[in-house]
Amino acid sequence: xxxxxxxxxxxxxxxxxxxxxxxxxxxxxxxxxxxxxxxxxxxxxxxxxxxxxxxxxxxxxxxxxxxxxxxxxxxxxxxxxxxxxxxxxxxxxxxxxxxxxxxxxxxxxxxxxxxxxxxxxxxxxxxxxxxxxxxxxxxxxxxxxxxxxxxxxxxxxxxxxxxxxxxxxxxxxxxxxxxxxxxxxxxxxxxxxxxxxxxxxxxxxxxxxxxxxxxxxxxxxxxxxxxxxxxxxxxxxxxxxxxxxxxxxxxxxxxxxxxxxxxxxxxxxxxxxxxxxxxxxxxxxxxxxxxxxxxxxxxxxxxxxxxxxxxxxxxxxxxxxxxxxxxxxxxxxxxxxxxxxxxxxxxxxxxxxxxxxxxxxxxxxxxxxxxxxxxxxxxxxxxxxxxxxxxxxxxxxxxxxxxxxxxxxxxxxxxxxxxxxxxxxxxxxxxxxxxxxxxxxxxxxxxxxxxxxxxxxxxxxxxxxxxxxxxxxxxxxxxxxxxxxxxxxxxxxxxxxxxxxxxxxxxxxxxxxxxxxxxxxxxxxxxxxxxxxxxxxxxxxxxxxxxxxxxxxxxxxxxxxxxxxxxxxxxxxxxxxxxxxxxxxxxxxxxxxxxxxxxxxxxxxxxxxxxxxxxxxxxxxxxxxxxxxxxxxxxxxxxxxxxxxxxxxxxxxxxxxxxxxxxxxxxxxxxxxxxxxxxxxxxxxxxxxxxxxxxxxxxxxxxxxxxxxxxxxxxxxxxxxxxxxxxxxxxxxxxxxxxxxxxxxxxxxxxxxxxxxxxxxxxxxxxxxxxxxxxxxxxxxxxxxxxxxxxxxxxxxxxxxxxxxxxxxxxxxxxxxxxxxxxxxxxxxxxxxxxxxxxxxxxxxxxxxxxxxxxxxxxxxxxxxxxxxxxxxxxxxxxxxxxxxxxxxxxxxxx
Length: 895
Fold this sequence. Notes:
By secondary structure, the protein is an alpha+beta fold. About 25% of the residues lie in helices and about 30% in strands. It contains 16 helices and 48 strands. The chain is globular, with a radius of gyration of 29 Å. About 50% of the residues are buried.
């Protein structure tokens, strides 16, 4: 690199690249891509009659803006081919918005379908072509839309049994859409004429059975045939099991109805009732659902199972009448999150014989999902046992995590075991009673998670940072099975709010999780008690530990979801629940400070930070009270922002006043002037008051200095906090430009730290820094956002929700020379690449159409270059706007 006249120039390469960008812009057109309805791609059976539409605009021309759009919605696709929208023609709407544009056409009702497309105009009046066609349908919105009964197939096995229920039906004419609505209490799979419908597994998503069940809609138009058709629904209990609130039947239940839609009218063809038939499947679930939970596994009897899905009579599996069951009143609502899907197939890396007819299989990395294996000829009735765990003891001994499947041989040639209505979380499989050594090609594992899309990528010059990032990225994929994020997928499988709060900023940065968070927040709303109390998990099957940081998820996660995805509807929907919970917390705030509230039948413990390393007393009462009251300050500040967003002026002022009052009280109660410290002086006790605005400006520098000194002298440069502390430290470091401090802690080898995990063979993050209990966990993933917001410099602005406005401000930690990141936003791909040489930075920024991006030029820069043009910067830090498209910024700090 050469530095001339105070600006940085990359000889040849930069000028050539900028010239190519300019040439590409000549005559460039507009493209409309990535159509979404309610955040989903072509959703069926949505939960509202007035959907919202989103799209992205692409252009090869820098500086493109959207000036307007036109949406057509039609009842038949053929009408759109003629550019006719019989349901809605928006005409040209002058607007820059392309996220969640509301439908304003003819009234739509339950069961009806629509097709849509959109075109846009840019700021110069140039018009795009029409987008590809999107699709949606409305779900069954009222209980009166249902004609089906809940049915079950009772057996002696009860909730362990995974029965199949069946009905034949006739189709006289083809062509019209056929929608099948399935409302199962427990898991289900649908088969039509022996072939599975769709690619979803472990369906539906989780819900609180006392309040809600989920309805999944399938389009079976392409699978039916004229004449007789056989419809079968395979059931598994899942969470719908004895001991879970809202469960009333000894076995899974389902109601389903098939409808034809033609001419804007619905016609019911088939519905579950007493005329359906059922049979056992050969699959059974083995589980103890009473806490402490042992999720057990599956027992597959090959003598009964028929993988060809033959619906005729089979030995031992006669079809018998089902039972009609009266389910308690609750809301059966359309599922508004993607189905669980198989996202990756994993093969074993090592197989070892460890005993007589016993083998240990290493899959090479931890995962959550299914295990599948084929066996050679076996004697009829021979039983094989498969056990799973996520790590071995240091001496190689097996760790019992109570995950066990079994297969009973049919004695008929090659046989196969595969999970179906349970999942396991593991790296290792111990196979017992296997007569012959297994072959690697005879087995595989399937990683399963909710069917969201990855939305970010990171790489930098430091391979160790890449390893930490990738471990966190992968861990979250292992934890997001069922339309929520669980603490761990094997020991508890619960949607803990503390773990959720700790990872929400990271998870929403890395993945497109708008539907998942809507589903999860819906469960939180359903779990709230009449007095405003919140549990520590949602859904809330039983009492679980946590604290205020867990309960307040309803506030903080809703706001972050709004910031990342721009959906104001999330705030409107859950704002009353947020207010109700704050009222509950205030009842346990004597003299203004939140204190321990009582345990209940649905909630226990009262934590501050959790899962801290040795030497940090997470049970110290001063720390617990300080952390929880700092969190309450954050809640009040966040509520003020939410109220302002919703136009509630008086409530905005009230929450701001409550936040300010609490800040003063927390500072007065917990600050020690002599030590310039708060609480017990741990990292979180020092950082949280600064992050929450508790530490007055004139004192914050002293607290910061103590934090830096203690990190080096007391904690030997390591992270010294737990589940709550990691995201608190991360957010404070990002906001205050403390990249060197955070980078130094991440680089530490040995206990505690991320490199300690990796050097110990981790492929996913652990529950405790020492690796005890679970090694697929959601405790320490909060650091993940730092790679994007600090090193990458991508920070959404508070006044531009959904990445409408973005600040680009990379923090070049000493020791890192280049970074490449991208973030897929609601407006499109935002990319940031930078490289440092001495004090010179070359920064490339790709901004999607519709986004307003500002790049921070730091203090001390005399001049900078933007897309080949030189500008004066001055002595102070400066914000410069960059247009959509590809931009190059170069500057050098004055020495």
